[in-house]
Design brief:
With 462 residues, the protein is mainly β. The chain contains one helix and 39 strands. The strands form ten sheets. Strands 9-15-14-11-12 form a five-stranded mixed beta sheet, with no helix packed on it.
Length: 462
């Protein structure tokens, strides 16, 4: 009887031990299961050109990735961190957490992107002809946005009847005359002018200026502007730079790139076989200087963008109008910079690292620039450097992109608008003039078609 009781008791103990082992095993499995604790955005609605910071917290995952309409840089994201993005359109980002057997869970967030088009603007003002015989009909055409009122006056002070609902008007001048289009909204005023030359025939084919215009007539200092013209029946055509007292003889039709540092007037002069002349001009105005309370980053580059572990490299920067500046790495280690203008720091890393340079102006607004420095295998395809001459510019300002790659079979540069600069040299530079915040990606392929990507974002302000 005692023996049976002992066997029964031992059986109960074994069962309890098995149940406890199973419970502990289940508990251990649960602890290893990945979980997305949170995924948030600093703003869920932004204006085009602004940035948004994604922040997340994940537990129990082997690795994570962030998916969007574009491939993000090939970097290893920490399980709990943040990342700054510059979406150009409404975008859904998905955080994917993977276990060690590659099973995954997902969580998404959407950032709405809107255009800021509140300011009054004259996008274009043109004529069907710029040189006519007396009383010939000419169609004036314009595109205006966000106006409350528009009016047109000729150089004799006469009002041309138009309304906000119209975008064209027919005029028939009997002499050379200039038309000024004015658009207003609240305290804002925008103006554009057109000159129509009226000439009389003298028994030979008249010189005719079909067009003479600039792609923009109000630009930030240092902008690239294209002049375009077309002339018929001219013996000689010259383009005069009135502000420099200099001219050049040009073809009867063509285009010329000029860089505008101050307000300039350009004059197109034509001469027929009898020596008669016909002239028209364009003035390019320079916008007022930028707000000196606004900080800007003129330079942020690394001596190398792909290094071996523990290899020393340097970060160099140039900052304008800042009251505070910091350098932050991927682990959110923040270094306050002693110099508010330019500086250099020597670093070594063991893992691929993102560095963010932040400058704060007197107006309290922040501007940032980012650099990715990759830790490489010496035999792998390597992007040694890829940087811009400036990371914060105004619309149309010239920016120089510079690169150096090694161990590649081919490489190219693509933009966030889908444009591609193909078959670039292993080292070189190119000038670009972004009209909105744009991301440029340098993509390099090895002989075995391995790919390396480095990217630069140029922030553009109006």
């Amino acid at each position: 009887m005692v023996k049976k009781y002992f066997v029964f008791k031992m059986g109960i103990i074994v069962c309890i031990f098995c149940l406890m082992t199973s419970f502990l095993s289940l508990t251990s499995y649960a602890a290893d299961t990945q979980e997305i604790i949170s995924l948030t955005a600093s703003k869920t609605e932004i204006t085009r050109g602004d940035s948004v910071i994604l922040e997340w917290e994940v537990t129990g995952a082997e690795r994570i990735s962030i998916e969007g309409p574009e491939k993000l840089p090939d970097i290893i994201f920490p399980l709990s961190s943040s990342y700054e993005l510059f979406p150009l359109e409404t975008t859904t980002y998905t955080l994917v957490a993977y276990s060690d057997d590659d099973t995954s869970i997902r969580k998404s967030i959407t950032v709405k992107v809107t255009d800021n088009l509140e300011s009054v603007a004259i996008d274009s003002f043109s004529a069907s002809e710029y040189s006519i015989s007396p009383d010939t009909d000419v169609e004036l055409t314009w595109v205006v946005r966000n106006e409350k009122d528009i009016e047109m006056i000729d150089s004799d002070g006469n009002n041309v009847e138009i309304s906000n609902k119209e975008s064209t008007v027919i005029v028939s001048p009997d002499k050379t005359i200039t038309y000024t289009l004015t658009a207003t909204a609240n305290d804002e005023i925008e103006k554009a002018t057109i000159t129509i030359n009226v000439v009389k025939s003298e028994g030979i084919a008249e010189v005719k200026i079909n067009k003479f215009f600039a792609d923009r007539t109000l630009v930030p200092k240092g902008s690239v502007v294209y002049l375009n013209w077309s002339v018929d029946n001219a013996e000689k055509v010259t383009l005069d730079y009135l502000t420099d007292n200099w001219y050049s003889e040009v073809d009867s039709s063509g285009s010329k790139m000029v860089i505008i540092y101050e307000t300039r007037t350009f004059e197109l002069n034509t001469t027929d076989v009898k020596g008669n002349t016909l002239t028209t001009s364009i003035t390019i105005d320079v916008e007022a200087e930028e707000d000196m309370d606004q900080a800007s980053i003129s330079e942020f580059e690394s001596t190398s963008y792909s290094v071996e572990a523990e290899e020393t490299f340097s970060l160099n920067w140039g900052i304008n109008n800042a009251v505070e500046s910091t350098l932050t790495d991927s682990d959110n280690n923040i270094t306050e910079l002693s110099s508010l203008e330019s500086g250099k720091i020597d670093l070594t890393i063991e893992d691929t690292t993102i560095y963010t340079l932040t400058a704060v102006g007197k107006n309290g607004l922040k501007v940032t620039a980012k650099i990715i420095v990759e830790v490489k295998d010496p035999s792998e395809t390597n992007i040694k450097k890829f940087y811009a001459s400036s990371y914060n510019v105004t619309v149309g300002e010239l920016v120089k992109l510079t690169w150096d790659v090694e161990n590649v079979s081919s490489s190219f540069i693509s933009t966030s608008d889908g444009y591609i600069l193909e078959d670039i040299d292993t080292s070189g530079s190119v000038y670009v003039t972004p009209n909105k915040t744009t991301t440029y990606k340098l993509i390099a392929y090895s002989v075995g078609q391995e790919v390396k990507i480095s990217e630069i974002t140029i922030e553009v302000s109006k």
